[in-house]
Structure formats: C-alpha cells, structure tokens
Amino acid sequence: MFDRLRAFWQGRVYFVARGEQLPRFLNYILQEGVVLYQTQRSERGMRAQLKLNDFYRLKRAARLTHTRVHIIAKYGWPFVAARWWRRKGLIAGAAVIAVGLTILSQLVLIISVTGNKNIQTSDILQRAEKLGLKTWIYSKGLDLNQIAKNLQEELPDAAWVGMERNGTEIKIKISEKIRPSIPKEAGNLVASHAGLVKEIMVIQGIPQVHEGELVRVGQVLIAKAPALGLPSTPNPSSAKINPAKSTTPNPPAAAAKGFVRGRVWYSAEQQIPLIEDKVQESGRVAKGWGIKFGSRVIMVTMQNSPFEQADKEVLSHSFQIWRNWRFPVEVIQVNYKELKKVHLQRTVSEARQLAEETARSEVLKKVSPGAQVIEETVKVLPSNTGVERVRVEVETYEDLAVYANP
C-alpha cells in the first residue's frame, strides 16, 4: 500500500529501449545508481520503469551505446500536477463554481406555499416578507418557528402555520380554519337512479311520489316545505295602508328531509370469441442500462430490444448528493418485456364463464357503495357463430333520495 503511494508521489516513467548494445546500456545505468522496476526483455527490446528523477540520467548511457529510448507511459502525481497546471482556467472556473454553489446553498432561493385554498398565496408571501422571510437572504439566521407564529397571528383564516427548510427552499404549510357553510341540502330530494320506490319516510317537506311507483333519474321525490309564517294569500288592504312592509324579504323555504328506498337494476353485457388471436406478455424481460445527461441518453448495454416485439419501460435513478442537490447524471434502466402472439381456442363453457366474470366485474362497478344486492341474474344471449354473449343483471335495494344541486 505504502509502496504504491510512494510510487505515485514520486512519479514513474514506462519506457522501451531498443539497440544492439542493451547489456552495455543496462550496465551503464546500473553504475549510475538508477533503479529499474519490472524489467522485461523481448525481441523488440527491453521494457522497464523507473522514477521520474532518474529518467534524465539515461541520456549518457543511451548516447554511448547508441540505444534508442522511447517513453510509452507516464504515471504519478508530477504528471497530474503538470496536466492541471496547463488547465489553470478550468481549475479556476471549477473553484469559482464551487464557491458560488456554497454561497448560494446558504441563501433562500425559493419560497413555496401549500395547503391554502381560500387564502391567497400572494397575501401570504407579502406578509411573510414583512416578517423577514424573503428570497436571497441568509437562511441560517431565520427563526422559522417565530416567523410561523407571527404569520399565523396575522392570518385570521389560518388555523395553523408551519415552515420547513429544505435546502434553499422554504415551504410554508397552511391549515385553514373550517368555517360554517350553508348546507347543500337546502333544496329538494331527487332520485339518484331510476328505480321502484318501496319505502318512503318524510321528516320535512312534501312527498311527490308513492310506494310502488317507478321513478326516473332526477325526479323530485320530496319537495322542500314552504316558508313558515307566510300567509297563503296576501292581504291587499294591508299593502295599501303600509306599502313599505311589503318589501320585507320572505324567509327561505325549509329544506326537504327524509329518505326514500327502493329497488334499482343494473346490467352489463360481454361477449367472448371461441377463437382469438391476441398479443400478450410472455414473462421474459431483458434489462438495459444507460446514462442520461440532460436530454441526451447514452445506452451502455443493450441499446435495442432483443425481442421481435416488446413493451419498453424506462426507469430513471437519480442520486441526491446533499439536501436538494442532485447529481446531474442519471442512471437509466430500460426493461424490454417480450410480447408474443397467442392463439386461444376456448370451449363454449369456458367462453361463457369468462364473459360472465367480465360482465359481473363491470356491473359491480356501477352499483352504488353500500347498496344491498338482492338478486343476480345471468342470461346467455343469442349471438353469431363462434361468439358467446352473456348479460349479468343485478337488483339492489338502496337509498334513492339525494339533494338536488343548487
């Protein structure tokens, strides 16, 4: 370990010596005290390596023995330092960029607001700026807890305000107060689905349908009650005596309340061929790896799919160096999933079963959540030769009444 470090620090030169007097050349350089490493003799000459400081001591021996010396490789810190010194501008630019990034990482560059619906984002940012939170300031000197507390006091509609520092970004999280709102139920109860009314209970309002009646979607089931305290017919004499009182606004009508339950029918059809050719995944997957620089992608392995037909799935893996700093180079993983053509031959029972399962899953998506399924009927419908057609019908018992949209 230490020998390799010492060799790297001193610098090594790999050379080839060619000539007819190589033994004399070797004796001369050994007399000069030059130490050779990894010496090899071949038909084309002699290969060896030596310290950088000893390389210039080969000139006298090479001149006396008429030996040609050629450098084939250089290794070590002196050569690295010389290469860097020739690129002083690049090193200076990298240093400036490093210093600039270090300074920018200590500043607030982005301020974002999340969680607000009714409070304007611009209003939150203006109030936060008055409290000392703004872009291009030193982030370590900010007391985010105190700023969040003061900001919550200035926002009457905010129930809670929190702040989170994520690198150069400050996130302001808002939780708004829940204000009492006008209920959406201030209106008529209408039918959500077409069905047969089996049970009706009116708590408030005027019933518009009866048990055993078929209703359609949107039909009024229970109408809102008229406003209380209003005379059924106006008094014209009082209007003549005091016309100013006739401008008094009438109180709003009371919302309809109650429930209406009934039977609802859902259905779905599906047909499955007995003979079918389709393309599906075979299960074989080939993976390729590449490197992405910005918008440019260089595939290192498996540039193209090895399969005749395949689905291509691209996954990107980025590396987070520190906080929100990410390495500009991403590793790309490409999965090629083989597709193959499959020829399927089904029996009549297999096609009917598959059509039934597909239609059942489709019809259950239409059923309202919480509805009670009373009966399910499966019907085989007439169809063309080579195709099985099935219909699934489901009868449910559920609530029909919903409030109409204002």
Automatic annotation (TrEMBL):
Residues 232-252 are annotated as: Disordered. Residues 235-248 have a biased composition (Polar residues). It holds the Pfam family YqfD. The chain crosses the membrane at residues 90-113. Keywords: Membrane, Transmembrane, Transmembrane helix. InterPro entries: YqfD. It comes from the Bacteria. This is Sporulation protein YqfD. It comes from Desulfosporosinus acidiphilus (strain DSM 22704 / JCM 16185 / SJ4).
